[in-house]
Amino acid sequence: MRDTIYRYNTPLRIALLADLHDREFGWITDSLKAHKPDIICIAGDVVHRVDTNTDGLAIGQTQYVLPFLKACAEIAPTFMSLGNHEWTLCVEDIEVMAETGVTVLDNSFVQYKDVVIGGLSSAGVTAYWEYRKDKPERYPEWDYGDRPDVTEPDVSWLDDFCKQDGYKILLCHHPEYRDRYLKNMPIDLVLSGHAHGGQIRLFGRGLFAPGQGILPKYTSGVHGNMIISKGLANTAGTIPRLFNPREVVYIEPM
Predict the structure, then answer these.
(1) Domain count, the chain
(2) What sequence ranges are listed for the domain Calcineurin-like phosphoesterase (predicted)?
(3) Which of 7, 55, 132, 189 is spaced 20 to 30 A from 146 at the CA atom?
């Protein structure tokens, strides 16, 4: 566990969090209280796995997610985008998450002071929301592995986002989306996670990342206008994190 600090051309002191995966978070909030960021940005995957065949809301099955979000919101204004592990959540789940005080950005943006903050949802989230449209069930039966042929995120709203006045921050869980969809857009700062630092790091490089494969390009650090968190948890089953400590990222104005 470590705090990683980057200097960047930003008007605010930002804490970047990603990939909690419903794990214990005391060390994270201790770090946030010590560093006192102006805003907290959560780039997806606070949820891990939920069973939508049981009664009640999916978010009610999580142990740490809601307390974590509430704790963050009590420290600083907190903004969150949706990662691939949020795919099962329904409207009511999102509303409960928002009741913690966190602003949940699902392919949407808000103005905060002189900054515009957007959240680009994972393609899997967009696919499932489209699939269950007009279905009576809160969680219609659907195997994520057999999802409809919707493999791209909804970027239609980004033109409007980019036209806004002010410094533009985009929370985008998937760093591989940058080159595919965002590279030529006038976005000041993209904040990502998802790659878990490449899980095992050798000679400063990660070995594998979902969506990028072996020897991925984007696993951590600063890449042009994108900053990537190595994540807050290890969720790779029997594959350990080696030479790859979990981190809270802080982005300080230059």
Answers:
(1) 1
(2) 12-197
(3) 55
If pLDDT is split at 50, 70 and 90, which confidence band does 132 have? confident
Instruction: Name residue 204's amino acid.
Output: G
What's this model's pTM, rounded to 2 decimal places? 0.95
User: How many angstroms from the chain centroid is the CA of residue 23?
Assistant: 15
Q: State how far the Cα of 248 lies from the Cα of 166, in Å rounded to an integer.
A: 26
* Rounded Cα–Cα distance for residues 162 and 186 (Å): 6
Residue 45 has what pLDDT?
96
The CATH number linked to 23 is 3.60.21
In a 13 Å sphere around the CA of 176, the CA atoms on its Cβ side amount to: 18
pLDDT-derived band at 150 (thresholds 50, 70, 90) equals low
